[in-house]
Amino acid sequence: MQESLDMHKKHKGKIEITSKVPLETKKDLSLYYTPGVAQPCKEIHKTPSSVYDYTSKGNLVAVISDGSAVLGLGNLGASAAIPVMEGKCVLFKKFADVDAFPICIESQDSDTIINTVKQIAPVFGGINLEDISAPRCFEIEKQLKEQLDIPIFHDDQHGTAIVVAASIINSLKIVKKNMKDLKITICGAGAAGIAVTKILINLGAGDIILCDSKGIISKDRTDLNPAKIEICKTINKSNLSGSLKDAIEGADVLIGVSAPSIVTEQMIKTMNKDAIVFAMSNPLPEIMPDLAKKAGARIIGTGRSDYPNQINNVLAFPAVFRGALDARATEINEDMKLAAARALANCIPETQLKEDYIIPSPQDPSILTAVSEAVKKAAQNTGAVRR
Amino acid sequence: MQESLDMHKKHKGKIEITSKVPLETKKDLSLYYTPGVAQPCKEIHKTPSSVYDYTSKGNLVAVISDGSAVLGLGNLGASAAIPVMEGKCVLFKKFADVDAFPICIESQDSDTIINTVKQIAPVFGGINLEDISAPRCFEIEKQLKEQLDIPIFHDDQHGTAIVVAASIINSLKIVKKNMKDLKITICGAGAAGIAVTKILINLGAGDIILCDSKGIISKDRTDLNPAKIEICKTINKSNLSGSLKDAIEGADVLIGVSAPSIVTEQMIKTMNKDAIVFAMSNPLPEIMPDLAKKAGARIIGTGRSDYPNQINNVLAFPAVFRGALDARATEINEDMKLAAARALANCIPETQLKEDYIIPSPQDPSILTAVSEAVKKAAQNTGAVRR
Questions:
Q1: Do B16 and A19 touch (CB under 8 A)?
Q2: Nearest to A102 among B59, B85, B123 (CB)
Q3: B283 CB-near residues (< 8 Å, 6+ apart)
Q4: Which end of chain A is more exposed for a tag (fewer CB within 10 A), N or C?
Q5: Contacts of A196 (CB under 8 A, 6+ apart)
Q6: Is the ipTM of this complex over 0.90?
């Protein structure tokens, strides 16, 4: 992709900071800078909540990373993560008119990251965490949610979870199965795998078998990190042990958020009838769609734009934050995520659903309104809004 | 100024974050986001300096405050400082096409501020410190200069110093006095007063008497903070003691960066012939221009836009950063500040100089090129550029 390098170089990055106000006349300067600017300052000092009226805070999201898990590339550090974070920022603007700014943090120490984000929070109306490696990402998100009163959203977890949930909801309408009867296997127990597991439980999934690189996660394992130990309490009801192959046998749904090419045709052949396979390792999936199809899978999704059913976070994060900001939400809670998933699924009328069209394309203009409205309403219904 | 409140509310702040790249087609998304974005990430990981080629860093300045000294309003805290910082950001864009982003830090502890700025430095090509109270601002700037390899510039100090220095340079051409023969009195020993003192010494000023609210700063004083003790070594050569009134008597130049209305006509009358008075407390000066004139001052400047000779930082900071960023400077050093002051002064041809036109207006289009080129050249000449 020399072209991508060339284009990044030509534009010298992707974001620009522009003025929303005119600055042509002396009067403009006196209104928006000195002496007029003293008025909103004094007003915010007197009535802190008016910061949402007089500043850009209410539409401003920080896209924050430490560069520890950049795309599928691994730990590249803060500077090398900037192109991804700038990319997120321009997608926020393009798809939801959210102003987003990239912050790449030098340290990879969790406490340092938490403290840094807290210190810079005043100008932001929300925080989108990005490409922070598991299990650190769980603790960082948890602490920030507890300590800040603005929405905190780790997109690798919850963006993925929302889009996968919407894809499952629509797939079930095609294969005519119920969520509670499903046997679901999830391959990959990092940020995305854990979050997908949680949202599917909250959607009423039957049993879920979660696998990491060592195989099925069960109570008998002694090598689990705290996040895996915690999630283990609510999944794998028969306490199965074994390999990924064992986990896939008889499954209705296989969700891959792990590594390229680790699922074989033979494994897919052992799945239940009308198998649903989301192989989202990117750019190289757990199994290529044509092989999964040949092996009998009925519905197949990937993270790629060159195959049908692209299960991509961009379907969720811009509209989710649009709704949260519009509601002046104090958090993005489980109800808001579920509402987003259901609204995203409903963007395709049931009559139009088919095996290779279970999820809308990012360009679908109905997503923004549907998802943001649903998120806003859920925030209001759960009382998660600023008074 | 209800109008200022109304306009801030109408626009909900002043900054917007937009895309420099097109995002219309699937191809655009694949170049600027996944999978193409992986290429610049890998390239930066391999060659760290290429972050200037592939990201917005090279044109991005953080405008950072803790809200401890907002305008003349005092310690209003982080949130109430946002309107001023957003204002700086839009001025950066308007006057020098620099992309600037406001960061307001929750804590007012110097070490916490220093650490926070270091942690978020990777995305920024420069740091503009703003409205941080003295003497904390000196230590914060010093530490950041030592620990980061991008330009650090406390505008309340150095922006003010550059514009005052340019104004003095041009005033001396009118009154036909030499810098080295001047007796200069500076009223106010905060961030601006100390920095103005330093730049005038570097320009070869004769003797400078610096006053704070307790009177003349001399070696006999026992109540001085470290910054005042340090500056005391290079000023007040006869070790005078006394009041502001004593300090003004016989002075050629009076520079006020202190508080409203503390200078009287009587004091101005005791100044030397062809007195130069810059009364920059804002919006209410140390003495109103008409009173100073009546008392015999020949050249008068203020911080206000409704009087001649508005000595305003906006004449310096945008072009100074433009030059520093264009040079990929690693700092903004004394030579660069002096070069900026001289270039700014030279924006008015000597034949056009007069008592009420010693400094150009911010709208003068020659400032940007003249000052940024001078700063860039000084950075190169002093070796303060990235290799």
A1: yes
A2: B123
A3: A34, A35, B72, B303, B304
A4: C
A5: A160, A161, A164, A165, A186, A255, A257
A6: yes
Within 8 A of B112 by CB-CB distance, chain A residues are: 115, 119
Residue B67: how many CA atoms within 13 Å on its side-chain side? 24
What string of pLDDT tens digits covers the 387 residues of chain A?
A: 799 999 999 999 999 999 999 999 889 988 999 889 999 999 999 999 999 999 999 999 999 999 999 988 899 999 999 999 999 999 999 999 999 999 999 999 999 999 999 999 999 999 999 999 999 999 999 999 999 999 999 999 999 999 999 999 999 999 999 999 999 999 999 999 999 999 999 999 989 999 999 999 999 999 999 999 999 999 999 999 999 999 999 999 999 999 999 999 999 999 999 999 999 998 899 999 999 999 999 999 999 888 999 999 999 999 999 999 999 999 999 999 999 999 999 999 999 999 999 999 999 999 999 999 999 999 999 999 997
Contact A87 B33 (CB under 8 A): yes
For chain A, say whether B17 makes contact (Cβ under 8 Å): yes
Lay out the sheet containing A299-302: strands in order across.
Answer: A215-216, A207-212, A183-187, A253-256, A276-279, A299-302
Q: Which positions in chain A touch B118 (Cβ < 8 Å)?
A: 106
Q: Chain B residues with CB inside 8 Å of A31's CB?
A: 1, 3-4, 7
Angle of helix A334-345 relative to helix A366-381, nearest 10 degrees, comes to 150
| Angle, helices A78-96/A317-326, rounded to nearest 10 degrees | 70
Question: From CA A178, how far away is CA A207, in angstroms rounded?
Answer: 12
Tell me whether B83 touches chain A (CB under 8 Å).
yes
B23 touches chain A (CB under 8 A): yes
A-contacting residues of B 110-149, CB under 8 Å?
112-113, 115-116, 118-123
Query: What is d(CA A239, CA A68) in angstroms, rounded to the nearest whole number?
Result: 32
- Pairwise CA distance, residues B380 & B386, whole Å: 9
Helices (H), B304-365: 317-326, 334-345
User: Taking the mean position of all CA atoms in its chain, how far away is CA A197?
Assistant: 13
Chain A residue numbers with beta carbons less than 8 Å from the beta carbon of B71 are 34, 37-38, 41
pTM over 0.90: yes
Distance CA A120, CA B107 (A): 9
Substitution target in A55, A108, A307 with the highest count of B β-carbons within 10 Å is: A55
**In terms of C-beta density within 10 A (0-12 exposed, 13-18 middle, 19 or more buried), how is residue A20 classed?**
middle
For B11, the token pair is 């626009």
What residues of chain B lie within 8 A of the CB of A57, using their CB?
13, 82
Residue of A9, A26, A27, A33 marked catalytic: A33
Q: Do A55 and B83 touch (CB under 8 A)?
A: yes
Q: How far apart are CA B187 and CA A333, in angstroms?
A: 55
Q: Are the beta carbons of B282 and A13 separated by less than 8 Å? A: no
